[in-house]
């Protein structure tokens, strides 16, 4: 069963809400509502609300098409809908088209406009510009596509891609550039875009082509999975070796802030969003 959209008619005859949300399946773990609702309150958008929209793949297209009439200004899109979101859009940013996936949809003048804010969020969060640097990306799913595209777009000298299923790494590299590898080797950046399921309970170094000590071979570690309520093994290993590390919540805040600005045309209160995303 998917989402049921409540009528946008608040009791008492107040003005209808301006709605935002996140579509995913599953999506119950998402910190986006807490983060965006805190941001909306902080910038004084009292009549706006951001909500969870659990939508299975077979209902994705019809649900999205119904959202503007139900008062939605825009939505974020997460697993497994990012490619479908791009396919549904009337217009898309160059980066969303390049990546082949969208995480942000804006409803404007009868059109669905797609963007991908994961890619710029990864680049903006890095402690150094990736131009001329080397990177190893782990994974070949949607977020790996965003990372590879972003690093290449930012002028990285070499982007290597490792994936559990090597053919998928080869496919990404054929489409986006980069070099598929079957083993990990030191580089300036390590970007982990793998997941082992949304509860992430089995995600550990067993899933990755490197061990905790190998993390010393990188100048910065980015670890996208974030839904564990605790540091991931990769983040723990990097922190223990005083290697600059960006965890998944930092990337979540970065992509959320960029989406918030697209939704509201207001500067995102990033500190407020970070505090809400990190609140236990
Ligand atoms: P996809 O489902 O598109 O891709 C999953 C990737 O993980 C594939 O490369 C898959 O490899 C790999 N994988 C899955 N299970 C294992 C395993 N047991 N061992 C090794 N590799 C495995 O997911 P996304 O790319 O969209 O997301 C990946 C992770 O990043 C998720 O945890 C997601 O929550 C997180 N994420 C976080 C964001 C943030 O803002 N912090 C934004 C986007 C994603 P294979 O091809 O072999 O199946």
Short overview:
About 2% of the residues have low confidence. The protein has a six-stranded mixed beta sheet with strand order 2-1-3-5-6-4, with helices on both faces. Strands 9-8-7-10-11-12 form a six-stranded parallel beta sheet, with helices on both faces. It has 280 residues and is α/β, with parallel strands linked by helices.
Q: Could you characterize what this model shows?
A:
The protein is α/β, with parallel strands linked by helices and 280 residues long. The chain has two domains: 135 residues, Rossmann fold; 116 residues, NAD(P)-binding Rossmann-like Domain (Rossmann fold). Helices cover 34% and strands 21% of the residues. It is built from ten helices and twelve strands. The strands form two sheets. Strands 2-1-3-5-6-4 form a six-stranded mixed β-sheet, sandwiched between helices. A six-stranded parallel β-sheet has the order 9-8-7-10-11-12, with helices on both faces. Helix 1 packs antiparallel against helix 10, helix 5 crosses helix 9 and helix 9 packs across helix 10. About 2% of the residues have low confidence. The structure holds NADPH dihydro-nicotinamide-adenine-dinucleotide phosphate.
For the secondary structure, the number of strands is: 12
**Biggest sheet record:** 6 strands, mixed
CATH architecture term of the largest domain = 3-Layer(aba) Sandwich
CATH topology of the largest domain: Rossmann fold
How large is the count of helical segments?
10
**Poorly predicted ranges (pLDDT <50, ≥5 residues)?**
197-202
CATH class (first level) name of the largest domain: Alpha Beta
Range of strand content: 15-25%
User: What general outline do the C-alpha atoms trace?
Assistant: globular
Strand order in the sheet with the most strands:
2-1-3-5-6-4
Q: How helical, in percent, are the residues?
A: 25-40%
Q: Ions, cofactors, ligands: which are bound?
A: NADPH dihydro-nicotinamide-adenine-dinucleotide phosphate
The domain tally reads 2
